[in-house]
């Protein structure tokens, strides 16, 4: 459903402010290289894709670790979703006429403090649909196509039709997936196959916005070490020496629930389930004289809730869409411009004054997704294959949860299909040495979360 | 965040209310106390020009639930509004802009009261200010007319109202917060890692006793006990040993600290399956941070040294409590103990005991401060123990905003101040150029100020630059201008293409920052900017100036 077209001279009056800027070169673009007369027509033809929540599941974290601000304000990438409303509004008011939105999520009451396209009456409905309808009604002349699906439900052919992709995803996995898909699609012989990826994320008063030009610069995978996974609380702490209220909650979540199974399946959004966990945690806390358990804390730990406010979402979504406008119109330099020292990444922090750090993250030669060389992996030759496979999950530069491994033509272990898994299972107990792996052996690792991507590692014995 | 008392009421079986669920994500940042402050806030927006940045700011205040807002806007909705402002639609064409904005913004949160002005020809900003309930904060956008600006400045002075100026044009924006006098923040929400104050170099009797008891026969403890000694206890024990062999002194130089750290590392038992002990690892990792002599944090020092102008009776309780803490510091040579203990490997029972020792000392110190504060306040005034507790917990991180520099620093808001900041920024740029750091955004700020001075949509680059020069007056040498000219010229040229219009993204971004700052001021939590933030949408950067 698209809204009626705006009449031509009405169109010019309506978009006066935007056109004054996007059809003129300004001070930082070479007027010889810029043709303002074609900008509007070109932008009207652009198909832009907005991807928001994709997997419907919170990132799997073994055990909750309280959010600890790090000494260096800017060292971590963050990514709660919830930017969808802001991004859609901004794109519509930036002159984009054909916007597609992928968002699998439904509206929850806790969204209403910042996701402003939704009202109380919309709770339970699909976000993509409600958002699309709202913005089409409010901003005339914009066509918005909603998809209530996962990003992984679509293939390369689908993504080929878009010129720019803007992400406000809620998980690292989803970001890596879209990044890998776009990088694989990019073919230097066909410039149209290179789709700029603009990514934003927020957490409380902090956030970041980054631009990725697939194959031409640093990508999400290159930047993976900025997402260092938080250290899990040891199981023995949960089981025998809890000290913090969070330990009691996680004990209830992981140990007591498993043992007592009060309900067939844990539904983290069901207040009855959370109340059960809350009461169990209280009992345990009482046993150990620990104070501080609240319903709110229980919910926060179990759902890994990230604080979020409208203000920060406003900043980050706008930063992303500002870049989209500049890329689409060429009316000003944009983040991610290829070149020495050209920044591609903005980090924002607003809890103590206002700080931004805008810098260039360098492309990694050994990036498994966009790089040319294999990444060096330090291993112990006495490790079993099983230990190696488990290490991929926690290794900051891999973070692969279900890896399948081949080494120089030989299949070592495959997670799927089941008969191949059975066949290769005996290899798990053998050591790397026993399997004939040596210093410099190249491993090809794949993971079902990243179809089409091969992660290449070169072994270094430590 | 807020500590729950041990004997808590039985759990609520029906869970949180609808309102708590709606505001859940933000309550985790500023808690019920911050939310209450927001819900009592009455905010005025005086809107003008393309009218978007102030509206985006309001959106970000209405959603989290401020009590009330009023929009004063003389414009009628025209076609151009519909291409930049999300809170207007086709049905608004020709109507009072204030009315339509109030309506569409009001939809965002039914719990917020909204109003608009002017409703009739006789409604002026002056009359609005007279008849309205007191405003908590007022924001206005350029191009505000100077008569209205004067009424706002008058009101702000009279009622001590924070006044926020916002200017968004093309790819650039800035906003300035003018606060009524010095603004203290106690609840600064410092980073978790920064707040550990274990007092290892000045332990009190109960802590000393506890540590001594646990480590009396440390070498004959079984592996379990040894491996579960809290690292606080480990460090106290080995600090004692060090003192005994170093003439009663603690490790002070970096060399000594690393030596001490190695001593601790070497004390870990390795004849176990793990090949080491986690608690000793924690102890070693904590050495550099915790084996450090006390030094008065600069924020608190500024508070202690602050020169008041009026009598005690006129001061807020913040200053009464600050005086009491100062007295405590003078008497004891240390600050009241905050009392939190980080998590560490230990037996639950032992950890809780340790926590209680710290909490008891913290309570004792806070009680002393409360007593002193009450004495200072006199019998006519009650000091709130909760306020004292908050101060004591956060003493090391207290911050003063909006302090006049004094001495050579020109008064904030003055022309001379602009010149001083300009000189400093140009000098910084010379260093920045050599070290490949980003250039100052001060020319951007000046260009926007110049544009507002011209007040004209058709101002070109030259006119904007001339306007800046008249703003700065002729105190700058042509050499200094030379440097500024080029940088200013580029921004002015880019600014000119916008013809005083707003870009939605820049206004939305700025609206996010302004709302965030207003929330900090209203809730008195987190640290506000002091006092001007500039955004460059070409390079996607901000910079804060003290003008």
Automatic annotation (TrEMBL), chain A:
Role this protein plays: Catalytic subunit of the dimeric E1 enzyme, which activates NEDD8.
GO molecular function terms attached to this record: ATP binding; NEDD8 activating enzyme activity
Pfam families for the chain: E2_bind (PF08825), ThiF (PF00899)
Keyword Flavoprotein: no
Domain of life: Eukaryota
Enzyme class: ligase
Family recorded in the similarity comment: Belongs to the ubiquitin-activating E1 family. UBA3 subfamily.
An example Gene Ontology biological process: protein neddylation
Keywords tagged on the record: ATP-binding, Ligase, Nucleotide-binding, Ubl conjugation pathway
Nucleotide-binding in keyword set: yes
EC number: 6.2.1.64
CDD domains xref list: Uba3_RUB (cd01488)
Reaction(s) catalysed by this chain's protein: ATP + [NEDD8 protein] + [E1 NEDD8-activating enzyme]-L-cysteine = AMP + diphosphate + [E1 NEDD8-activating enzyme]-S-[NEDD8 protein]-yl-L-cysteine
InterPro entries xrefs: E2-binding, ThiF/MoeB/HesA, ThiF_NAD_FAD-bd, Ub_act_enz_dom_a_sf, Uba3_N, Ubiquitin-activating_enz
Pathways per UniProt: Protein modification; protein neddylation
CC per GO annotation: cytoplasm; nucleus
Every E2 binding domain range: 377-462
Protein name: NEDD8-activating enzyme E1 catalytic subunit
UniProtKB/TrEMBL annotation, chain B:
Record GO terms (molecular function): NEDD8 activating enzyme activity
Record-linked Gene3D superfamilies: NAD(P)-binding Rossmann-like Domain
Keyword Cytoplasm: no
Keywords in alphabetical order: Ubl conjugation pathway
InterPro entries tied to this protein: APP-BP1, ThiF/MoeB/HesA, ThiF_NAD_FAD-bd, Ubiquitin-activating_enz
Domain THIF-type NAD/FAD binding fold intervals: 23-543
GO cellular component: cytoplasm
Superkingdom of the organism of origin: Eukaryota
BP GO annotations: protein neddylation
Pathway where it operates: Protein modification; protein neddylation
PANTHER family per record: NEDD8-ACTIVATING ENZYME E1 REGULATORY SUBUNIT, UBIQUITIN-ACTIVATING ENZYME E1
Described purpose of this protein according to its UniProt entry: Regulatory subunit of the dimeric UBA3-ULA1 E1 enzyme.
Family named by the database record: Belongs to the ubiquitin-activating E1 family. ULA1 subfamily.
Full protein name: NEDD8-activating enzyme E1 regulatory subunit
Organism: Neurospora tetrasperma (strain FGSC 2508 / ATCC MYA-4615 / P0657)
């Amino acid at each position: 459903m698209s809204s009626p077209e705006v009449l031509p001279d009405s169109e010019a009056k309506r978009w006066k402010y935007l056109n004054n800027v996007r059809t003129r070169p300004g001070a930082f673009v070479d007027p010889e290289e810029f043709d303002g007369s074609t900008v509007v027509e070109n932008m009207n033809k652009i198909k832009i894709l907005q991807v928001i929540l994709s997997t419907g599941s919170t990132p799997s974290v073994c055990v909750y670790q309280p959010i600890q601000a790090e000494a260096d304000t800017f060292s971590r990438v963050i990514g709660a979703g919830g930017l969808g409303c802001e991004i859609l509004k901004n794109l519509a008011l930036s002159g984009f006429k054909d916007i597609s939105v992928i968002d699998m999520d439904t509206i929850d009451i806790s969204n209403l403090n910042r996701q402003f396209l939704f009202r109380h009456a919309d709770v339970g409905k699909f976000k993509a649909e409600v958002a699309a309808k709202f913005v089409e009604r409010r901003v005339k002349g914009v066509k918005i196509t909603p998809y209530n699906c996962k990003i992984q439900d679509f293939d390369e052919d689908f993504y080929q039709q878009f010129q720019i992709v803007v992400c406000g995803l809620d998980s690292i996995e989803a970001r890596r997936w879209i990044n890998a898909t776009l990088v694989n699609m990019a073919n230097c012989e066909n410039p149209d196959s290179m789709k700029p990826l603009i990514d934003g994320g927020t957490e409380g008063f902090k956030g970041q916005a980054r631009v990725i030009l697939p194959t031409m610069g640093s990508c999400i995978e290159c930047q993976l070490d900025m997402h260092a996974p938080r250290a899990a609380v040891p199981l023995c702490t949960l089981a025998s020496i809890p000290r913090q209220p969070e330990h009691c909650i996680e004990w209830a979540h992981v140990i007591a629930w498993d043992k007592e199974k009060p309900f067939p399946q844990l539904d983290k959004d069901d207040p009855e389930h959370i109340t059960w966990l809350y009461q169990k945690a209280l009992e345990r806390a009482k046993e150990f004289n620990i104070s501080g358990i609240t319903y709110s804390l229980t919910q926060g730990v179990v759902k890994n809730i990230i604080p979020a406010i409208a203000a920060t979402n406003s900043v980050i979504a706008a930063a992303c869409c500002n870049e989209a406008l500049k890329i689409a119109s060429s009316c000003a330099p944009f983040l991610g411009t290829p070149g020495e020292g050209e920044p591609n990444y903005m980090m924002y922090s607003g809890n103590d004054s206002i700080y931004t750090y805008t810098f260039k993250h360098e492309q990694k030669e050994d990036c498994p997704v966009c790089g040319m060389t294999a990444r060096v992996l330090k291993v112990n030759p006495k490790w079993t294959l099983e230990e190696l496979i488990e290490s991929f999950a926690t290794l900051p530069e891999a973070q692969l949860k279900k890896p399948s491994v081949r080494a120089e033509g030989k299949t070592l272990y495959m997670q799927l299909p089941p008969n191949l898994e059975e066949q290769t299972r005996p290899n798990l107990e053998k050591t790397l040495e026993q399997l004939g792996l040596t210093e410099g052996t190249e491993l090809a690792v794949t993971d079902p979360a990243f179809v089409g991507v091969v992660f290449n590692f070169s072994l270094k014995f430590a | 965040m807020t500590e729950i008392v041990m004997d808590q009421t039985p759990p609520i079986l029906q869970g949180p209310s609808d309102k708590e669920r709606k505001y859940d994500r933000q309550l985790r940042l500023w808690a019920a106390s911050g939310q209450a402050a927001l819900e009592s806030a009455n905010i005025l927006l005086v809107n003008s020009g393309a009218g978007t940045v102030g509206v985006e700011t309001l959106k970000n205040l209405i959603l989290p639930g401020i009590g009330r807002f009023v929009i004063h806007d003389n414009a009628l909705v025209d076609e151009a509004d519909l291409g930049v402002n999300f809170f207007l639609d086709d049905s608004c064409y020709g109507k009072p802009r204030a009315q339509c904005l109030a309506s569409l913004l009001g939809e965002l949160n039914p719990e917020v009261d909204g109003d608009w002005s002017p409703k009739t020809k006789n409604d002026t900003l002056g009359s609005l200010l007279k008849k309205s309930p007191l405003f908590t904060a007022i924001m206005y956008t350029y191009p505000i007319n100077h008569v209205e600006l004067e009424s706002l400045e008058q009101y702000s002075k009279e009622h001590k109202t924070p006044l926020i100026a916002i200017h968004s044009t093309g790819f650039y924006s800035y906003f300035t917060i003018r606060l009524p006098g010095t603004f203290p923040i106690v609840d600064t929400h410092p980073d978790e890692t920064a707040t550990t104050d274990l007092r290892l170099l000045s332990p009190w009797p109960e802590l000393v006793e506890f540590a001594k008891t646990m480590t009396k026969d440390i070498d004959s403890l079984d592996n379990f006990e040894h491996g579960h000694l809290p690292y606080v206890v480990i460090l106290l024990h080995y600090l004692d040993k060090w003192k005994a062999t170093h003439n009663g002194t603690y490790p002070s130089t970096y060399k000594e600290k690393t030596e001490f750290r190695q001593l601790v590392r070497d004390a870990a038992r390795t004849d176990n399956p793990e090949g080491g002990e986690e608690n000793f690892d924690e102890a070693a990792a904590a050495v550099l941070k915790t084996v450090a002599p006390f030094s008065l944090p600069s924020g608190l020092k500024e508070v202690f040294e602050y020169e008041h102008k009026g009598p005690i009776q006129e001061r807020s309780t913040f200053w009464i409590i600050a005086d009491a803490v100062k007295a405590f510091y003078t008497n004891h040579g240390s600050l009241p103990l905050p009392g939190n203990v980080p998590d560490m490997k230990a037996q639950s029972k032992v950890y809780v005991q340790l926590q209680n020792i710290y909490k008891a000392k913290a309570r004792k110190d806070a009680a002393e401060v409360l007593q002193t504060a009450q004495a200072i306040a006199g019998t006519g005034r009650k000091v709130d123990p909760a306020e004292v507790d908050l101060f004591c917990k956060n003493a090391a991180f207290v911050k003063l905003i909006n302090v006049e520099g004094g001495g050579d620093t020109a008064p904030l808001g003055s022309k001379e101040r602009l010149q001083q900041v300009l000189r400093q920024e140009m000098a910084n740029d010379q260093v920045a150029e050599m070290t490949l750091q980003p250039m100052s955004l001060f020319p951007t700020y000046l260009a926007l100020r110049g544009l507002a001075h011209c007040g004209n949509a058709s101002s070109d680059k030259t006119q904007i630059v001339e306007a800046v020069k008249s703003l700065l007056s002729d105190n700058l040498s042509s050499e200094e201008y030379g440097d500024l000219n080029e940088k200013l010229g580029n921004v002015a040229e880019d600014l000119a293409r916008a013809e005083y219009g707003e870009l939605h993204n820049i206004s939305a971004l700025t609206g996010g920052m302004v709302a965030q700052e207003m929330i900090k001021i209203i809730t008195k939590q987190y640290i506000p900017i002091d006092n001007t933030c500039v955004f460059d949408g070409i390079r996607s950067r901000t910079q804060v100036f003290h003008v």
